[in-house]
Each structure stands twice: as C-alpha cells, then as structure tokens.
Amino acid sequence: MVSKHGTGASHVALLARGLGIPAVFGVSDMALGRLHGREVVVDGYSARVCVQPSPTLRQHYLKLAAEETALSLGLQELRDLPAQTPRRSLYAVDGQFRFVR
Fold first, then answer.
1. pLDDT band at 98 (very low <50, low <70, confident <90, very high)
2. Distance CA 50, CA 36 (A)
3. With contact defined as beta carbons under 8 Å apart, do 49 and 42 qualify?
C-alpha cells in the first residue's frame, strides 16, 4: 500500500501493519501514476518504495520476507505460553485498549 497522504501512525497504517500488508504513507513527492504496471517493492520498515528494483535488490527483499515469515512462525509457538520473566515470575496481562484523539 502506497499513499501520498497520511503517516505511519494513521489508522490505515496500523490496520495494514496488523494485517501484514507492507505500507508507506506520505510519499507526496512520488508520481503514483508511474507505478501502474511496474514491479514495486514496498518496504514498510524503512518507508521506502523501490520502483523496478534490480535483481540484486529484489533478491534482498525476498530474503527479508522469508526471514520475516520464519520469525512469525517461530513466535506462534510462544503465543499460548504464560508470560514469565527470566526469574520465573508470572504476570497476568489483561486490559482494554482504546484510541484517544
């Protein structure tokens, strides 16, 4: 997702991040029409948009994507374990979250 408006803290950015969709916002200096039909790499971590990436850069991002997938799969093994500190202290985490403007 690439947008001329907004920031990485916008509601749409948070939603995209939660869904695992790479997104960059506030690229007002880019002509978005020139992206049509071209290969684009959207790096949400560093807020970069690479149009027609070189084969080397493309391989770099494919490797990063594979590492991210492996990390996510590894973390899923931990999600049902109790929250525990290195000293074996247990903590319950329970709360409500709301957005305040």
1. low
2. 13
3. yes
SS (H, E, C) 84-101: ECCCCCECCCCCCCCCCC
One-letter amino acid at 92 equals A
* The model scores a pTM over 0.70: no
User: Across all residues in the chain, what is the average pLDDT?
Assistant: 84
Residue showing tokens 């929250």:
83
- pLDDT score, position 88: 73
CB burial readout 29-67, b (16+ within 10 A) else e: eeeeeeeeeeeebbebeeeebeeeeeeeeeeebeeeeee
